[in-house]
């Protein structure tokens, strides 16, 4: 099942894609794709609906119908760094002995096709296609073997990053990761049954039609069940938390010479079975 949120920023309604990829309005069934609506029993209830009987929404998603972030009211936006050995190498860093964990502020969250704004003073705004994991059932000290029962679904994330703010300005990476618009999420929240093998999903990213990232979740160092279990030793996870699991090689910082985003450029990125995003780059 592909769940989504559609409408103007801040006023999104819940929806679901039907068999013909048209949007059906879920407002009469759930208030939002958020919080307790992501619990396993709630998702199961949605999966039991006759989708074709729900009201049809006018417009083609991602064309004349705006799609918002596929999860509302996200509590924590947790990211994993250096989770692909070849990306760690292009960043001039070693694969860490334990996952690198950092945050994106929730004010960074935007829809999959909303503009990405280069922050004031930035010279080094960069891209990162990543597999997103959305928590359905919360918990602490989750066993790795049980971790997938805590997952509501998967989505595409662009972990937009300002490298000078992140690496050259002291302190944690967070300054360069959480600027406004640096967290496009969606278009769809795809339930695990529809994704199947999440350890073998192709992922890609292009800027103005030039392909920079071409990877697969196959080469992740720390896999999804381990990451959920690992994170839950340091914090309780809650319904609607989002984990961005790291990027494969091909970021701008890793090009020779490095390449960074400029106003007017367009990023397109996607992951097998999870859909694609398109963002115009503008200036704050
Ligand atoms: N270098 C860097 O910022 N990396 C990451 O965010 C990552 O590995 O996903």
Q: How would you sum up this structure, described in words?
A:
The protein has five helices and 18 strands. It starts with a strand and ends with a strand. Strand 2 (13-17) and strand 3 (23-25) form a beta hairpin. 46% of the residues are buried. The protein has a single domain (71-283), classed as Fumarylacetoacetase-like, C-terminal domain (Fumarylacetoacetate hydrolase, domain 2, Alpha-Beta Complex), CATH 3.90.850. The longest helix has 8 residues, at 40-47. Helices cover 11% and strands 29% of the residues. The strands form five sheets. It has a five-stranded mixed sheet with strand order 5-4-16-9-10, covered by helices on one side. The chain is mostly beta strands.
Concise structural overview:
The protein has helices at residues 40-47, 85-90, 163-168, 192-195, 224-231; strands at 2-6, 13-17, 23-25, 77-81, 100-103, 109-110, 116-118, 125-126, 129-135, 151-158, 161-162, 183-184, 189-190, 202-207, 210-216, 242-244, 266-271, 275-283. With 284 residues, the protein is mainly beta. The radius of gyration is 18 Å and the shape is globular.
Notable characteristics:
284 residues, mainly beta, Fumarylacetoacetate hydrolase, domain 2, five-stranded mixed beta sheet, 5 helices, globular, binds (2S)-(carbamoylamino)(hydroxy)ethanoic acid
């Amino acid at each position: 099942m592909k769940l989504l949120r559609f409408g103007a920023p801040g006023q999104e309604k819940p929806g679901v894609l039907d068999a013909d990829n048209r949007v059906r309005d879920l407002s009469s069934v759930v208030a939002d794709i958020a919080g307790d609506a992501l619990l396993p029993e709630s998702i199961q209830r949605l999966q039991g609906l006759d989708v074709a009987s729900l009201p049809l929404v006018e417009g083609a998603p991602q064309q004349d119908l705006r799609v918002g972030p596929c999860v509302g009211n996200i509590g924590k936006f947790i990211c994993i760094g250096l989770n692909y050995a070849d990306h760690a190498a292009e960043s001039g860093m070693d694969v860490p002995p334990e996952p690198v964990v950092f945050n994106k502020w929730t004010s960074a969250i935007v829809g999959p096709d909303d503009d990405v704004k280069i922050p004031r003073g930035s010279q080094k705004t960069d891209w990162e296609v990543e597999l997103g994991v959305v928590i359905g059932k919360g918990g602490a000290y989750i066993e790795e073997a049980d971790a997938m029962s805590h997952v509501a679904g998967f989505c595409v994330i662009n972990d937009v990053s300002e490298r000078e703010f992140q690496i050259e300005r002291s302190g944690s990476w967070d300054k360069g990761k959480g600027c406004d618009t640096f967290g496009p999420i969606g278009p769809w929240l795809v339930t695990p049954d529809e994704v199947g093998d999440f350890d073998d999903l192709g992922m890609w990213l292009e800027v103005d039609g030039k392909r920079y990232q071409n990877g697969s979740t196959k080469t992740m160092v720390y896999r999804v069940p381990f990451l959920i279990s690992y994170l839950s030793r340091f914090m309780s996870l809650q319904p609607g938390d989002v984990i961005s699991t790291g990027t494969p090689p091909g970021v701008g910082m890793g090009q020779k010479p490095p390449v960074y985003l400029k106003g007017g450029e367009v990023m397109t990125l996607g992951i097998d079975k999870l859909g694609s995003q398109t963002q115009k780059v503008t200036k704050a």
